[in-house]
TrEMBL record:
GO terms for biological process: fatty acid metabolic process. This is Enoyl-CoA hydratase domain-containing protein 3, mitochondrial. It comes from Methylocystis echinoides. It comes from the Bacteria. InterPro entries: ClpP/crotonase-like_dom_sf (IPR029045), Enoyl-CoA_hydra/iso (IPR001753), Enoyl-CoA_hydra_C (IPR014748), Mitochondrial_ECH-domain (IPR052377). The gene is fadB_2. One of its GO terms (molecular function) is hydro-lyase activity. Belongs to the enoyl-CoA hydratase/isomerase family. May play a role in fatty acid biosynthesis and insulin sensitivity. CDD domains: crotonase-like. Keywords: Fatty acid metabolism, Lipid metabolism, Transit peptide.
Length: 268
C-alpha cells in the first residue's frame, strides 16, 4: 500500500488492491478549487498516471461538510484590486480548472466520484467530469451561479455531457439543489448507496479493478474520442481501436482464458 506521508496535504493519496483513493483535504474551505488546490489535484493525477497498473481505478472523495464548493470566491474577489480588475487571474484560474477536468477525462483509468456531501458549481462540474459517480443518501448537487450573478458556464460543459439538455438547463437556470435520487434519475450519478458513497464507490471500483487494465484503457479513451462524432467517424475510430485491442496481450490472454474455461491472469 502507498499513501501520503503528510496528512495535512490538500490532496491525500492512498493506493491498495489496485485502487487509488484521492481525498480532497481542505474541509475548512469546503474543498474549494483555489489555484493551489487545482495544482495539487493535477499533481496527484500525474502521480496516479505514473503508477502504471498499480492503479487500475481511482476514487475521488472529500473530507468535511462539502465534497467541493466550486471556485474559491474569496480568492477570486481578492484579485479585483489588481490593475486589470483581476482579469489575468480569472483567466489563469479558468484555464487551470479546465485543464484539470480534461486531465480527469484523459486519464486512462476510470475515475469514480464518491459524493456524500454537497457538490456545487465547479464541484458539480468535478463530479460530472468523473467517469462514474456514486452518491450517498444525503448528497446534493447544484450549479447556483445565477444566484450571485455568475452563470456556471464552465460547469455547464461537463454537466451537459452527462444529463439531458433540459435537465442541465434547469439546474443552470434555477441554481436549485438536486438530491441524490434526482441526480440518479437524470444521469448525474450512477447509483445511490444506502451505506454511503465511499462504500458504494469502493465496491464498484473493486469490480472494475478485476477487469483487463488494457481493455479499460483502450475503452475509456475511445469512449470519449468517438462521442459526438458522426456515426461513420465513430465506427472508424472504434473499429481501429478494436483491431489494436485484439492484438494486445490482455486480449490474447483473456480470449484464451475464455476459450480454455479458466480465469484470466492479466499480464503485468
Amino acid at each position: 500500500m502507498t499513501e501520503n506521508i503528510d496528512a495535512t496535504a490538500p490532496i491525500l493519496l492512498a493506493t491498495a488492491d489496485h485502487i487509488t483513493t484521492l481525498t480532497l483535504n481542505r474541509p475548512a474551505s469546503r474543498n474549494a478549487l483555489s489555484l493551489s488546490m487545482i495544482a495539487a489535484f493535477s499533481d496527484a493525477l500525474d502521480v496516479v498516471a505514473r503508477q502504471g497498473e498499480e492503479t487500475r481505478v481511482v476514487i475521488l472523495q472529500a473530507e468535511g461538510p462539502a465534497f467541493c464548493a466550486g471556485h474559491d470566491l474569496k480568492e477570486l474577489t481578492a484579485h479585483r484590486d489588481d490593475p486589470d480588475r483581476g482579469e489575468a487571474f480569472f483567466e489563469e484560474t479558468m484555464r487551470a480548472c479546465s485543464a484539470l477536468m480534461r486531465k480527469i477525462v484523459g486519464l486512462y483509468k476510470p475515475v469514480i466520484a464518491a459524493v456524500d456531501e454537497i457538490a456545487t458549481a465547479a464541484g458539480c462540474q468535478l463530479v460530472a467530469s468523473c467517469d462514474l459517480a456514486v452518491a450517498g443518501p444525503r448528497a446534493r448537487f447544484c450549479t447556483p451561479g445565477v444566484d450571485i450573478g455568475l452563470f456556471c458556464s464552465t460547469p455547464a460543459v461537463a454537466l451537459s455531457r452527462n444529463v439531458a439538455p433540459k435537465h442541465a438547463m434547469e439546474m443552470l437556470l434555477t441554481g436549485a439543489l438536486v438530491d441524490a435520487e434526482t441526480a440518479l434519475r437524470i444521469g448525474l450519478v450512477n447509483r445511490v448507496s444506502a451505506d454511503g458513497a465511499r462504500t458504494g464507490a469502493r465496491a464498484l471500483a473493486a469490480l472494475i479493478a478485476q477487469k483487463s487494465p488494457q481493455a479499460i484503457s483502450f475503452g475509456k479513451e475511445t469512449f470519449y474520442e468517438q462521442s459526438g462524432r458522426t456515426l461513420a467517424e465513430a465506427y472508424q475510430i472504434a473499429g481501429a481501436v478494436m483491431v489494436e485491442n485484439l492484438l494486445a496481450p490482455d486480449a490474447v490472454e483473456g480470449i484464451g482464458a475464455f476459450l480454455g474455461k479458466r480465469k484470466p491472469v492479466w499480464p503485468a
